[in-house]
Sequence to fold (251 residues):
Amino acid sequence: MINIILSGCNGKMGRVISEAAKCDETVKIVAGFDINTEKNFDYPVYSDFDDINAGANVVIDFSHPANLEKVLCYCTKNNVAAVIATTGLTGEQTSKIYEAAKKIPVFFSANMSLGVNLLVSLAKQASRVLEDNFDIEIVEKHHNQKIDAPSGTALMIADEINKELKESCEYVYDRHLSRQKRSKNEIGIHSIRGGNIVGEHTVIFAGNDEIIEITHKAASKEVFAVGSIRAAQFLSGKGAGLYNMQDIMNL
Fold:
């Protein structure tokens, strides 16, 4: 049995993860962390990590960037693995994740969906084949309550594509600020916010007389919940280090 502390347990994703964990006999949420300490499931909820004494194997963090340092501090202090699924992190915060991974197992991904990470793999392969003759654009769509734009997933896709290119491309987010032709040395990233769109990402390879599109659409938040639980299971028995969804896909 893998014992989990769920950070952000009373948020939208926290509730979905709690429901998913109830259906998985290999995991158990033993405590939750949230500024809202309302008890909605059969585990205690704390507003301070220092008050938690639950004998956990892993912390799943699906909360807010402001909580990252608390999560990493708790995990490194208590030798507990961490699954970091919160988006909107700064470069400095990401560096802290890398530092923590030198001491504990850390699973870090901007998107916990297996399907999205398959999209990344396909986009990387397509980039290697098409880069000389195709322009690359990324379009992401999310619900109207999402704060960060572009999404962490869109940036992850762009970063992974960029690693495959012979020459590094710059990211262009807002074309109306510059009245000039699109250069070959760029990746356009576009954000759409509206309604209750769970999450949609499309990578467009636009060439002469042909267009290739790779798209992933999430129909519910459950795909991310299942992915985060799978990440927690993956970390069981792992040594200190930084892991991501590609490690699971390569099993």
Summary: The two ends are 21 Å apart (CA to CA). DSSP finds seven helices and twelve strands in the chain. The CA atoms of residues 14 and 37 lie 13 Å apart. The mean pLDDT is 94.
